[in-house]
Design a protein that fits this description.
Elements lengths: L5 E10 L8 H6 L5 H6 L1 E5 L3 E5 L4 E5 L2 E6 L5 H14 L5 E13 L3 H11 L17 E4 L8 E8 L8 E11 L5 H29 L3
Antiparallel strand pairs: 1-5, 1-6, 2-3, 3-4, 4-5, 6-9, 7-8, 8-9
Helix pairs in contact: 3-5
């Protein structure tokens, strides 16, 4: 398996939220983070329409329709999961209709030529050069044809937005689930039951990709 330069994890919840509830000091008051973490948190905004803050190891953003927990520390993936579980065991009545587990894997290729050939492998972009000057492939997406109890799966490949060397790619594996019960309790069951499987499928998809691609 090709070594990742950055592996981020984003857990996205879709539902009906009150953004002012979850804040660094609320988390500390519930014993979910340390007091020092709350005191040193970088808070952008806490408002009825949007809350956004960042701790040393994860970032949080909430609107009335969407919550996004994200960490760039692979060593803290399970800790982030446990934090989400603890939060919504306290907020059991929160309406939640869907959850997405997003695996954001960044790879820096050796040279710009490798990077360019990576795009050529997916699409014959050179064929459009008669009309488009030096055409480039911007993104590729693969989707599972149907959603079932194991959720839907989407694999997206784009230029990396975190490695500014003009030769890096982001491979994003999005595992999306609709919540049948449409509440926090149902969301937590889906998160816990599909956690390991989501990582397994991501590793398998990316292994398949790098075993086939020709640079």
């Amino acid at each position: 398996m090709r070594e990742r330069d950055i592996y981020s994890l984003s857990i996205v919840l879709i539902g009906n939220f009150n953004p002012v509830i979850i804040s660094p000091f609320w988390l500390a008051s519930k014993g979910l983070i340390r007091e020092i973490e709350a005191e040193t948190a970088r808070v952008d905004v806490i408002h009825s329409e949007v809350t956004k803050f960042e701790l040393d190891w994860f970032s949080f953003e909430s609107t009335q329709a969407r919550i996004d927990f994200k960490t760039n520390r692979e060593s803290h993936f399970n800790i982030l999961r446990d934090l989400i579980i603890s939060i919504f065991e306290l907020l059991k009545e929160t309406p939640i209709s869907a959850i997405g587990i997003n695996h954001l894997c960044h790879y820096s290729l050796k040279t710009f030529e490798e990077y360019r050939n990576f795009g050529y492998w997916f699409s014959p972009v050179k064929e459009f050069s008669e009309v488009m000057h030096e055409p480039k492939l911007l993104s590729v997406q693969y989707v599972k044809s149907n959603s079932d109890d194991n959720g839907s799966l989407k694999l997206s490949i784009t230029p990396s937005d975190l490695i500014p060397d003009n030769k890096s790619v982001l491979i994003n594996c999005n595992h999306h689930f609709q919540i049948t019960k449409k509440d926090a309790k149902g969301m937590l069951a889906v998160l816990i039951n599909n956690w390991d499987d989501s990582f397994m499928k991501t590793d398998k998809l990316i292994d398949l990709l790098w075993s086939k691609v020709t640079l």
